[in-house]
């Protein structure tokens, strides 16, 4: 499996987890992770954790 395929799969898994989340904080956390995995799947460099705002 390529890095791109792995990150795309993880993005899908995080979006699914967001939809199953019991609360808004969990939803946002999973969606934030999904967005980061999607960025990586597209070949972008990882963002630093201090720049990620989960609210």
Ordered list of secondary-structure elements with their pairings:
Layout: H1 3-20, H2 24-41
Give a written overview of the molecule.
The longest helix has 18 residues, at 3-20. This protein has 55 residues and is mainly α. Helix 1 (3-20) runs antiparallel to helix 2 (24-41). It starts with a helix and ends in a 14-residue tail after the last helix. The chain has one domain (3-41). It has helices spanning 3-20, 24-41. It is 65% helix and 0% strand. The mean pLDDT is 88.
Structural Rg: 11 Å
Helix amount, in percent?
Answer: 55-70%
Mean pLDDT: 88
Counting DSSP H or I runs of 4 or more residues, the number of helices is 2
- How many individual β-strands? 0
Q: What is the first-to-last residue Cα distance?
A: 33 Å
Taken as a percent bin, the fraction of beta residues is under 5%
Shape: flat
Structural class: mainly alpha
Estimate nothing, just give the exact number of structural domains. 1
Order of helices and strands: HH
Major sheet description = none
Uncertain regions spanning at least 5 consecutive residues: none
Provide a concise account of the structure shown.
The chain has 55 residues and is an all-alpha fold. It has helices at 3-20, 24-41.
Descriptive terms for the model:
single chain, mainly alpha
